Amino acid sequence: MPRIALVDDDRNVLTSVSIALEAEGYRVATYTGGDTALDGFRAVQPDLAILDIKMPRMDGMEMLPRLRAASDLPVIILTSKEEVIDELLALKIGADDFIRKPFSQRLLIERVKVVLRRASPKNGTLPNEAANSLLEQGRFRKSVTRTVRTVGTQNQQQVANSRAVHAETA
């Protein structure tokens, strides 16, 4: 079952979310700060991280670019910050989803499932390999290729995708 790293300085959130995720079969590692989480991620190697923004020492907004510099680990931000600018910034620097507190645990679990589904290999094929698939129908064969171009700095990346379809006769 997937491993989830939960990073929040509120022990009540750590406890309640851990119980809900473990009831769904996930293995959960908890951390009370971004500094300890980054060190712990090396040992635990989580499949997904859920980060709070407001934490002492190293908050989620400081942790996320450091995490992105070393990993493509899917990240859901879980925070009490209510400003749209915080959500936009989190998504811009690499978050995959953003949930405001107070939140529905059922909604959090469903979003965890969605983010993990998007990030995981499909039928043993990596997502980029699945995009380079070959479709055959009758006498025609259609090859779909995906080109990913990375633009930006180490702390901020923008990915531009383009698809090309090539039709060939079989």
Q: Which structural traits does this protein have?
A:
31% strand; 3-stranded antiparallel beta sheet; 8 strands; Rossmann fold; 5-stranded parallel beta sheet; 6 helices; alpha/beta; 170 residues; single chain; disordered C terminus; 2 domains
Would you mind describing this structure in some detail?
The chain is built from six helices and eight strands; from the N terminus they run E-H-E-H-E-H-E-H-E-H-H-E-E-E. By secondary structure, it is α/β, with parallel strands linked by helices. The chain folds into two domains: 3-119, Rossmann fold; 127-169. A five-stranded parallel sheet has the order 2-1-3-4-5, sandwiched between helices. It has a three-stranded antiparallel sheet with strand order 6-7-8, with no helix packed on it. A hairpin with a 2-residue loop joins strand 6 (134-137) and strand 7. It starts with a strand and ends with a strand.
Quick structural gist:
This protein has 170 residues and is α/β, with parallel strands linked by helices. The strands form 2 sheets. Strands 2-1-3-4-5 form a 5-stranded parallel β-sheet, with helices on both faces.
Q: Would you count the extended β strands for me?
A: 8
Q: What name does CATH use for the topology of the largest domain?
A: Rossmann fold
Roughly what fraction of the amino acids lie in strands? 25-35%
Q: Give the overall average pLDDT.
A: 79
The CATH homology group name of the largest domain: Response regulator
| CATH class identity of the largest domain | Alpha Beta
CATH structural architecture of the largest domain: 3-Layer(aba) Sandwich
Strand arrangement, largest sheet? 2-1-3-4-5
Oligomeric organization of the protein chains: single chain
Structural domain count: 2
Alpha carbon gyration radius: 19 Å
Number of helices: 6
In one word, what is the shape?
globular
